[in-house]
Amino acid sequence: MTENTTKPVSVYAEANPNPESMKFVLNSVLLGEGGSVDYPSVESAAESPFAQELFNFDYVSRVFIASNFVTVTKNTPIAWAQLIPELRTFIKSYVEAGGPIFLGTPTTSTAASAAAEVPSDLSAEDTEISQKVIDLLENYVRPAVEQDGGNITFRSYKDGVVTVNLQGSCSGCPSATVTLKAGIENLLKRMVPQVQEVVAEGVVL
Predict the structure, then answer these.
(1) Taking a C-beta distance cutoff of 8 angstroms, is the pair 101, 9 a contact?
(2) Distance, CA of 130 to CA of 119 (rounded, Å)
(3) Is 4 exposed, middle or buried, given 0-12, 13-18 or 19+ CB atoms closer than 10 A?
(4) Residue 25's beta-bridge partner residues?
(5) Rounded to whole angstroms, how far apart are CA atoms 173 and 23?
(6) Are 28 and 9 in contact (CB under 8 A)?
(7) Which pLDDT tens digit goes with each residue over 46-62?
(8) CA–CA separation, 82 vs 101, rounded Å?
(9) Is the torsion defined by CA of 174, 110, 63, 95 positive or negative?
(10) 145-174 b/e (C-beta count within 10 Å ≥ 16 → b)
(11) What does the alpha-carbon distance between residue 100 and residue 49 come to, in Å, rounded to a whole number?
(12) What pLDDT does 187 receive?
């Protein structure tokens, strides 16, 4: 008789600053370390059967997947206390059954991919500043944002303005603008004097 050595999957829910999002943390890996994917709609989640299944819950409006957690954003006034048991049971059962998280290799957001997107026609100074900003975001900002169930990626640097993209629980979070200005902007201004302002795509201040 062969003993089943499959490790049981545990899932626990963890609140974050966005009241419309909930972070579900697992004791197993969903995505390679350092990468993340953000699906704002079921159409965008074509590469992830796992995310598509989550979108089958009619109150799920966004799915963000990182190393060992998935952040779910809801579009209903129903309290999380009523939704968590159902989602936790589904996630646990799906992962334990070996359901596919992705079809092939997902398109992830990482510092490396951000660096690759830095336009080649920038001046040498702007290219150097962009790289400094990317390094700071990856090493100091991203780990803290990920703790809250979200992600931040570099988009561009021009004329003293850094543009970033907020994903997961950070998207639509009431405190995102405070974090952006009081936290991230102050850090970058202090570490990179050329930076005058930090703005986020799609976030109106």
Answers:
(1) no
(2) 10
(3) exposed
(4) 12, 69
(5) 13
(6) yes
(7) 999 999 999 999 999 99
(8) 25
(9) negative
(10) bbebbbbbbbebbeeeebebbbbbbbbbbe
(11) 6
(12) 87
| pLDDT, position 81 | 96
Most confident range, picked from 90-99, 103-112, 160-169: 90-99
Residue with tokens 């999002």: 21
Q: What is the DSSP string of the chain?
A: -----PPPP-EEEEE-S-TTEEEEEESS-SS-TT--EEESSTGGGTT-HHHHHHHTSTTEEEEEE-SSEEEEEE-SSS-HHHHHHHHHHHHHHHHHTT--S-SSS-----HHHHHHTS-TTS-HHHHHHHHHHHHHIIIIIHHHHHHTTEEEEEEEEETTEEEEEEEETTTT-TTHHHIIIIIIIHHHHHH-TT--EEEETT---
Closest residue by Cα to residue 92 from 28, 150, 169, 21: 28
Nearest to 17 by CA among 140, 179, 142: 179
- pTM, 2 dp: 0.69
- The CA distance from 137 to 170, in Å, is 15
Phi and psi, residue 123, nearest 5° = -65, 165
Structure tokens at 159: 């004329």
